[in-house]
Amino acid sequence: MQQTNINTLEVTVQRGTHDAPQDEIFQVPAYENQTILDVVSWIQHYADPSLTYRFACRVGMCGSCAMMVNGEPRWACRTHVNKVLDKNKMHIAPLRNLPVIKDLAVDMDPFFDKWIQAEGKHHPTQTRNDPIAPVQPETAARVEANAGIECINCSICYAACDTVAGNPDYLGPAALQRAWTVFNDAKNESKQVILDAVSGASGCHNCHSMGSCTHYCPNDLDPMSAISGLKHETAKAFFKGRTNA
Predict the structure, then answer these.
(1) N or C end of the chain, less CB within 10 A?
(2) Which long-range contacts (CB under 8 A, 24 or more apart) does 138-145 make?
(3) Contact 118, 198 (CB under 8 A)
(4) DSSP class of residue 104?
(5) What are the pLDDT digits (tens) for 135-162?
C-alpha cells in the first residue's frame, strides 16, 4: 500500500473484558486505501500480538469483523480509514449490546439465542421425502421473505439498536427480521407460533421505530419495516382472536 501524507494515525482501542474495559493508544502507519481491519491487523502484528478480534473473509461476506468505530457499528473490512478519521484520530471498540469476551471480540450467544426465541427457524410443512413444492416468486409474501434473506448475522443492527441498549431482553432487529422472513415463507407451517413468540414482553412492540437498524445495515436491508410487518400481523391476530371469542 502507498503511504499517505499523514505519517501516523492515533488509534485508541478499547481493551480488556466486559467488566474491566480500558483504552490503549497506538500509533499506526497511515496508507492509501487503508481499512479499519488493516489498522487492527497492523496493531496485532506489529504492536501487540495479544490484541483479540475476529475476521474471516476480508471482503464483506461474513460479517465477523463487526466492531464500533468512533461510536458507530461498522464492518472493519469495508470501512476505509479516510471515511471515519477525525483529526487524525479514531476510536475502536467491541460491538455494544453484547458481552465482551476480550478486547474487540464479543460473545454472540445472546444474539443467536434470540433467533431461537423469536422462532426464526423453519417449521416445515413437508418431509424431505416429499416432492419439492414450487414457490411463486412474484407473490407479496415471497417478496417480503426475499427482502430479508441476505442477512448474514453480523449483528450490526443489534449493536445499533437503542432499544436493546435500554432493554437487554428485547429480541432485537435481526431476530425479528428473521421471524418476519420465515413468517412469509410459503413452506413454513407455524405462523401463529411465530406471532406468539414475537408479541411478548420482549417482542416487536418494544420497537420505537427509530430506524438505526435499517440505517446501519451494511447489506441495505430494512429490519424496521420487517418489525412493522410483525406489529401489524400480531395486532391483527390479537383483534381477530377477540372477535372470535
Answers:
(1) C
(2) 139/186, 141/184, 141/185, 141/186, 142/184, 142/186, 144/180, 144/181, 144/184, 144/226, 144/229, 145/181, 145/182, 145/184, 145/185
(3) yes
(4) T
(5) 888 899 999 999 999 999 999 999 999 9
